[in-house]
Amino acid sequence: MDEYKGKTLSWRLSDGIVELALDRPPANEIGLAMLEDLERFASSLPALELKASAIILYSAQKAGFSAGADLRELYEQARKMDAQSAAKGVREFLERIHAALNRLDTSPLTTIAAVHGVCFGGGFELAMVCDLIIADKMARFCFPELRLGLVPGFGGIPRLKRDIGNAVVRDLLLTGRSINATKAQSAGLVSQVAAEGEALRLARATAAQTTKFDRATAAAAKKFIKPLPAEELRREIDIFCELFTRPAVMEGLRKFVENAGAHPYLP
Amino acid sequence: MKTIEQTTDEILNLAATHFKFPRADLQPGDDFYKKLGIDSLQALELLTRLENHFGVELPDYEVQGVSDFHTLATRIQARL
Do A17 and A205 touch, CB atoms closer than 8 A? Predict the structure, then answer.
């Protein structure tokens, strides 16, 4: 389908470019509803890929691209279950989101994330699925998972390792600090830094450029230079699920959910 | 090399401009969360604006717990 409006996102194909807008207040937290919409998008890709050259992912929410996984939903779901059932549910969620993101990762189309504001955790992982990240200079990137006693679970570590040097990966993961767009560009994560409010416009100009190329050639180039780190992605799910069963994780989630202080997003 | 007073003054100017707050009402010892009435996302915006303005990196853990302009200035000053 060329056009779709779901609960958490919408997309539209026009002039050979698919624009997908994340639109779940307050900050595009990725929970079950967004997973279902992302799955719908993934299943629509075969048809879209016959008509388009590029896909742009952006956020219609002022707060930013995405604050990451919906930790409140995760906590509320998990606390109703015993530890074994919660772990099983988490694994099912991860398997599903990996399948959707892997499909987007390997799309023969050129994929661009236009990022502004917060791009944290699962949101950062979603952006990293794309071939290019074009970031507003006010964008901020972070992997805060370690403060919950977890590792990124939506494919973040294998994709970081695919894209950048191990020292930067360690810095991001082991400190959990956030970095701005300029730093992310110098690290090799961001391809273009836009002026404030201009990321989507630059992404559209970049996507328009891709329509000039032969699609089969662009797809072959992408397939050659951007292999899916399938084995490591599988391993990441296992590590996440092993860590998730520890009581410290539920305690960390509880603290996050109940935190009414001024710094809930700061690691 | 900027003095701590210059750095503090630039932070106050930047905060006043961005949050549309009267500059004359901002003092170095003010709690910026309370005075500006900002939340965590706006604090992150301020952090990013300060990094862009001064051309420095400010790791979150260095400014976590900091809530007044003067202490913020000392953190920036250490990286100029």
Answer: no
Q: Do B57 and A140 touch (CB under 8 A)?
A: no
CB contact under 8 A, A262 and B40: yes
Question: What local confidence, expressed as pLDDT, does residue A261 receive?
Answer: 59
Rounded distance between C-alpha atoms, residue A32 and residue A11, angstroms: 18
Question: If DSSP codes are grouped into helix, strand and coil, which group holds residue B35?
Answer: helix
Q: Is the pTM of this model over 0.80?
A: yes
C-beta neighbour count of A167 within 10 angstroms: 9
Residue in chain A lying closest to B51 (CA): A180
Residue-level pLDDT at A113 = 98
Measure the CA–CA gap between A229 and A120, rounded to whole angstroms.
Answer: 21
Q: What is the pLDDT of residues A7-18, one digit of tens each?
A: 999 999 999 999
Name, in order, each residue with C-beta under 8 angstroms of A225's C-beta and a sequence gap of 6 or more: none
State how far the Cα of A183 lies from the Cα of A115, in Å rounded to an integer. Answer: 14
By a Cβ cutoff of 8 Å, what residues of chain B touch chain A?
Answer: 33, 39-41, 43-45, 47-49, 51-52, 57, 59-61, 64, 67
Searching chain A, which residue's CA lies closest to the CA of residue B62? A177
pLDDT digits (tens, 9 = 90+) for A70-92: 999 999 999 888 888 889 999 99
Inter-residue contact B47 to B18 (CB < 8 Å): no
CA distance A99 to A68: 17
Answer yes or no: are the C-beta atoms of A211 and A120 closer than 8 Å: no
Q: How far is A197 from chain B (nearest CA, A)?
A: 13
* A5/A114 Cα distance (integer angstroms): 19
